[in-house]
């Protein structure tokens, strides 16, 4: 299948091993670096979306309502300060904001 050739001083690769690489180039799986980076960002964004979606779902279940309804409830009861609810409001708002940010990459 071809004579072995030396790659630099460190590795000897036979002609057989270079054929699949040339096949990949012919198929053109990754046209350029932009495409690879886009795939990486999309993959990372999907992971982040899943994480924040799970956190939002936990908050929905904890309070039995969505973020907007919970926000209205906390603001309307501003005279009665419940620190746990205020902390959850800030966290939940961060989850929603982060979810929306990462969703724009998908």
Oligomer: single chain
> Largest beta sheet, briefly?
2 strands, antiparallel
Beta-strand share of residues: 5-15%
Helix and strand element order: EEHHHH
Terminal CA distance: 44 Å
Mean pLDDT: 79
Helix content: over 70%
According to DSSP, the number of beta strands is 2
Judging from the principal axes of the Cα atoms, what is the shape?
elongated
Question: What would you note in describing this structure?
Answer:
With 106 residues, the chain is mainly α. It has a domain at 43-103. It is built from four helices and two strands; from the N terminus they run ββαααα. Strands 1-2 form a two-stranded antiparallel ribbon. A hairpin with a 3-residue loop joins strand 1 and strand 2 (11-13). It is elongated. The two termini are 44 Å apart.
Please tag this protein with its features.
elongated, 106 residues, two-stranded antiparallel ribbon, mainly alpha, 2 strands
Structure summarized in a few sentences:
The chain is mainly α. Helix content is 71%, strand content 6%.
Secondary structure topology:
Blueprint: E1 5-7, E2 11-13, H1 15-27, H2 33-63, H3 67-76, H4 83-103
Antiparallel strand pairs: 1-2
